[in-house]
Request: fold
Amino acid sequence: MRAEELKGHLDALLLAALEAGPRHGYAVIEALRQDTGGRLDLPTGTIYPALRRLEQAGLIAGAWSVVGGRRRRCYQLTGAGQQALAGRRAAWREFAATVSAVLEGVPCPDPA
Amino acid sequence: MSGPGLITSYLDALARQLPGQVVEELADGLEETYRRHVGLGLAAGEAAAAAVAEFGDPELIAAEFARAHPARRAGRRLLAIGPVVGMCWAVALVTGRAWTWPVPMAAGIVPGLALVAVVALLAVAVRTTRYRAVGRAGAAGCIGTAALDAFMIIGVLAADPAARWAVAVAMIASAARLGLSARLLRPVLAGNG
Reply:
């Protein structure tokens, strides 16, 4: 799966990758790689600006630490980030159910 | 080029465009990526080449950071509310018959030229993909907007002390935007590193 196909979904994927606990940029990338069985084809370097954007939006919080003599920035979900992730999940389920209803003939679940 | 040499050269390319803290974070990720490839059995040079390829084009990364720069958001917000504040001042100056005020001609021309410069700076902050240019233009745009608002408030108070309601509304709008510019400036300066 290429970067352009992920447009609009990358933020939700990054938030989900941080749901289990604080991670640094590379660990986020590894989590995405493992969770998708290596199907994500993203230039690794573009994950970092996306993390910065989420941090500026207050959805994640970053903090520096020193590991093995190198400075490392770790991120964790904020309360607003957890709420945003829940909202993205709900929106995704509705979107997937709606598209599946048309493409695969799977009946849409009752919205109620 | 040797493995470490390739990584150093790659980080140098990033450092020419991005602030030190950003490069430090990328360097940590690149080192982890390199170690993963070494762990998978690649020789040092191959692992470095694979890590650099996996990270992507430095120009692309710098452009993505430029898009994420707080100056981008600041520029968008100030450009979006600019016409509203401008309209308030247009109504205030026309209804107050500003052309009859006893002020030197320069007092009318200078704010107009400053406005054009500020809009141009904010447009650069919103459009360019060069990180440092985004940050500098955004900071200058925020400062310029605040200075322009302060000039208008003080200048019009001095020229027309019997301010009418339209002038009062324009001053409130300018004061609010001045506060917003000051708030937006802080993250922009932090982003500039």
